Protein: tRNA pseudouridine synthase B
Organism: Adonisia turfae CCMR0081
Amino acid sequence: MPDGFLNLHKPTGWTSHDCVAKLRRLLQTKKIGHAGTLDPAAIGVLPVAVGRATRLLQYLPDDKAYRAVVQLGTTTDTDDLEGAVLTQTSAAHLSLSAVTEQLANFQGEIQQIPPMYSAVHVNGQRLYDLARQGKAATIDVPCRHVVVHSINVVNWQPGESPTITLDIACGAGTYIRSIARDLGQCLGVGGTLSSLLRTQSSGFNLDTSISFEQLNEQLEQLQLITPAVAMGHLPEITLPLELGRRWCLGQRVPREPTIELEKPLRVITEACPFLGVGVFRIKDHQPHLVPKMVFVQPS
């Protein structure tokens, strides 16, 4: 199996780890990882790296996008409909304009408390483990700084338990369940996440994602996404062939910086669209291009 990326459409009811385990069996390789965990109930884009491409996961872009359905008037212990209902309140009086007005509070750089049932570590333990031990009420969950680029209303369904469908673009670490919970709190009726579809993650989009059913059908002719494509968002530097060969051997090469020091960039030659990832660094008082991850084996 060649090295590269797969844009998987995660099905509902599966953990991200379940998806990796199945792919290891299908592709007959253990070296598989994923970017951006999805909750079991969520569906949509799950970027997967195969082989040596797993070392490139850290260089994928952070931004993500979701289509979320928020149910107002209901709170649960997991902040989604998978959990036990804590409160049920009539929200029939709410209007779309009242809800939209509150959405402005959740855009830009915001402070967010993760859901109690999440993988965030507190005092060396994951929150969901503490919650299952019945310690939720005793844990002071720290706020996290996250960025929400935009929230757009897609649909509004009024009623006793109205729902609002939102398109949300955000940075890494943002919990959509927390937005649902906090929106309901701001409106005085409570809220929880009804459903979640990830439409974009780490440069991969929903319209090009592949389901397990499609994967089974295409297994013998499967074409992985090349690292050159997946790393296309990084600034590029072209090396002469001989310098490229030396760089692939792990040598730093003298080069004037074209971007900020220590920022990753994609290293190429005229003959190869992707040698690996490098950074500019000062060595012996001189700027050099230093290998961070060499992908191409030197010839």
User: Anything to note?
Assistant: Residues 155 and 165 are 5 Å apart (CA to CA).
